[in-house]
Amino acid sequence: MPDLTREAVLDVLNRIPDPLSGQGLSEAGLVRGLVVSPERVGFMIEVPQDQVPGYQDVRSQAEAVLARLPGVKKAQVVLTAEAPGAPPRDAPRGPSAKLSDRAVNDGKPKAPVATARPDHVRHVIVVGSGKGGVGKSTLSLAIALGLKAQGLRVGFLDADIYGPSAPVMLGLRTPPEFGEDKRMVPPEAFGLKVNSVGFLVDPDQAMIWRGPMASQALTQLLTQTRWGTPEEPLDVLVVDLPPGTGDVQLTLTQKTLIDGAVVVSTPQEMALADARRAVTLFGKTGINVLGIVENMAWFPAPDGGEIEIFGRGGARALAGTLNVPFLGEVPLDPALRQGSDTGRPLTATEPGGAMARRFSEIAAAIAHALAAEGPARN
Ligand code: ADP
């Protein structure tokens, strides 16, 4: 069966009229963040709050039409309300659009970038992976601590609904309190301001959230946490995304202004194929891919040798192929796992150690790339 193309999908969507303009859905600019993969086809319809009820039917029609396309296992169309004050459909949406050039360029038009952004936060970066279990959370935290070690004010948001781990990794037991403005006041650990989906719900419940519910909860964690103040804005907020390239990641990356994405992968083929998908997702949503990190690249043998348990160099090669920066490799180190399990992150407890130095370099490259983007936008 020939692969389904974006053009074919847009073509069928154009046969459904936009109730407002009468144009086809794609022509009317209503198809946002279209994902076409062998497994699934999906996109978002974003309309002003008061028009949401009028588009419920369009949403169901579009989903039904996509589900009937040959080869489509899952079709999902998400209907969401635009942030108040959002620009009209066709307007260019925010400065991140220009950042997409360095991301994967597949020659296709990039989806417009949305607008919500936490107050008093200069930069938001997301850390993603195609696959679970590759060390995304461990490395997100180490990157956040590495940025802190550069003298920056840093926040860490654990948005991994499938396995929120920040409370354990940082030994934090108390959830955020609510301030007078009804915003969450994040607890601090090792100099980071921290919030986690694990504070809000029991992890088993988080896992069964439907896409739109999860996206809403994550957007709330991002925007309703008091990350910074006008006097002391946060320099960087590091968001540990759920693994994969599904609707939750898609919606979050579309509804939030994100300055860059880091992708974590192990050197194995399977992980790399998924990492490639993650890079593509970020590219398509107009997010600047800051680079790929290879985790578990080798294991230091007692005789001083380096055992390449999962192979080595695959992520570096992938970065080359996709024309995105390679940020560095991280070895397997039992002390890194132990520190995570006991709430004492290695790079914070041994700031002069080899692992801390490694992450300091990765963080410096990220900070440099963010600074190169120009002045912060709020
Ligand atoms: P993910 O967020 O991708 O699911 P985690 O960060 O939770 O992955 O890592 C999975 C497990 O692997 C954890 O127990 C973590 O401590 C461990 N781990 C991750 N990276 C390393 C590493 N470089 N060395 C040793 N253990 C690691």
> How many DSSP-defined strands?
15
Overall body shape: globular
What's the architecture of the largest domain, going by CATH? 3-Layer(aba) Sandwich
Give, in order, the helices and strands. Answer: HEEHEEHEHEEEEHHHEHEHEEEHEHHH
Structural class: alpha/beta
Strand content: 15-25%
Name the CATH superfamily assignment of the largest domain.
P-loop containing nucleotide triphosphate hydrolases
Q: Sheet with the most strands?
A: 8 strands, mixed
- List the domain count as a whole number: 2
Present the secondary structure layout.
Blueprint lengths: L5 H8 L18 E5 L3 E8 L8 H12 L6 E8 L39 E8 L7 H14 L4 E5 L7 H4 L7 E2 L5 E2 L2 E2 L2 E5 H4 L2 H5 L3 H13 L10 E7 L6 H9 L4 E6 L3 H16 L4 E7 L3 E2 L5 E2 L6 H9 L3 E5 L3 H8 L4 H4 L4 H19 L6
Parallel strand pairs: 2-3, 4-10, 4-11, 5-9, 5-10, 11-12, 12-15
Antiparallel strand pairs: 1-2, 6-7, 8-9, 13-14
Helix pairs in contact: 3-13, 7-8, 9-10
Task: Please provide a written account of the structure.
The chain has 378 residues and is of the alpha/beta class. The chain has two domains: 6-81, GMP Synthetase, Chain A, domain 3, CATH 3.30.300.130; 121-372, P-loop containing nucleotide triphosphate hydrolases (Rossmann fold, 3-Layer(aba) Sandwich). The chain is 33% helix and 20% strand. It is built from 13 helices and 15 strands. It has helices spanning 6-13, 56-67, 136-149, 166-169, 197-200, 203-207, 211-223, 247-255, 269-284, 314-322, 334-341, 346-349, 354-372; strands at 32-36, 40-47, 74-81, 121-128, 154-158, 177-178, 184-185, 188-189, 192-196, 234-240, 260-265, 289-295, 299-300, 306-307, 326-330. The chain has an eight-stranded mixed beta sheet, with helices on both faces. Strands 1-2-3 form a three-stranded mixed beta sheet, sandwiched between helices. A two-stranded antiparallel sheet has the order 6-7. Helix 3 (136-149) packs across helix 13 and helix 7 runs parallel beside helix 8 (247-255). The radius of gyration is 21 Å and the shape is globular. 48% of the residues are buried. The site of adenosine-5'-diphosphate has 19 residues, from helix 3 and helix 11.
